[in-house]
Amino acid sequence: MGYDIERFVGYVNEGLLCSICRDVLEDPLQAPCEHAFCTACIHGWLVHHSNCPEDRQAIDVSVLRPLYRYMKNDLNRLQLHCKNREYGCEMVCSLESLDRHERECEYSQIPCSNAGCTIQVERRNLDVHLAVCEYRSRECPNGCGYTILSAEDTQHNCVAELRTELELLRSEMICRVEEAKHEMESRLDSQRRHMVQKESILQNEIEELKSQMSRMMSDVRSLMAAERQHRQELEQAELEKREL
């Protein structure tokens, strides 16, 4: 939808009106046939049609282009009233600067910044509203440090709030201790499994060394027996030699 033509000061050229809504162009696009439309208007039209609403020539979204520069300049120079005129704003500005003004307009309706408050007030009255808003928060004047809403003033109990806070901290501490305990147990189990695995490997290595030593001892005994046999044979040969 375009800008309501009643908001404008002075004459508005017919070429600057949307061919669909007949209001002053907002975020305009132009068809090859040079008819201009608000972006929202022409997109909505093309959902159900495939032609220009003015002369019925075939068009689609791909052929739409921005407005000619000279037409865009003429559009931006138009003077119009702020949308908050009904609330008291008397500002008249160019269409080009309208968005900037309305973002900062003191008469704009804005929501209260307090969580839970659904009231909308004029920007210029926001500070006054915040001072009396039932959802405004402040720190407890008794020194417990708790943040309270004005609506909760009569129900606030420092001792109860601190007890609740203490219980929450206690529960959180218990949870953290349990988490740390589980983590340590998990680490110990992992280390225990690792040690058992290492012990098994070492035990296998020891058994292998024992087996090797057993074989070596058997070989040594065999060598010693062979040496004794060889010595006896030499002694026998020596005796035979002497006898001859």
From TrEMBL:
<feature type="domain" description="TRAF-type">
    <location>
        <begin position="101"/>
        <end position="144"/>
    </location>
</feature>
<dbReference type="InterPro" id="IPR001293">
    <property type="entry name" value="Znf_TRAF"/>
</dbReference>
<keyword id="KW-0436">Ligase</keyword>
<keyword id="KW-0863">Zinc-finger</keyword>
<feature type="zinc finger region" description="TRAF-type">
    <location>
        <begin position="101"/>
        <end position="144"/>
    </location>
</feature>
<dbReference type="GO" id="GO:0016874">
    <property type="term" value="F:ligase activity"/>
</dbReference>
<dbReference type="Pfam" id="PF13923">
    <property type="entry name" value="zf-C3HC4_2"/>
</dbReference>
<dbReference type="InterPro" id="IPR017907">
    <property type="entry name" value="Znf_RING_CS"/>
</dbReference>
<protein>
    <submittedName>
        <fullName>RNF41 ligase</fullName>
    </submittedName>
</protein>
<dbReference type="InterPro" id="IPR001841">
    <property type="entry name" value="Znf_RING"/>
</dbReference>
<keyword id="KW-0862">Zinc</keyword>
<feature type="coiled-coil region">
    <location>
        <begin position="192"/>
        <end position="243"/>
    </location>
</feature>
<dbReference type="Pfam" id="PF02176">
    <property type="entry name" value="zf-TRAF"/>
</dbReference>
<dbReference type="InterPro" id="IPR013083">
    <property type="entry name" value="Znf_RING/FYVE/PHD"/>
</dbReference>
<keyword id="KW-0479">Metal-binding</keyword>
<feature type="domain" description="RING-type">
    <location>
        <begin position="18"/>
        <end position="56"/>
    </location>
</feature>
<dbReference type="GO" id="GO:0008270">
    <property type="term" value="F:zinc ion binding"/>
</dbReference>
<dbReference type="GO" id="GO:0043122">
    <property type="term" value="P:regulation of canonical NF-kappaB signal transduction"/>
</dbReference>
<keyword id="KW-0175">Coiled coil</keyword>
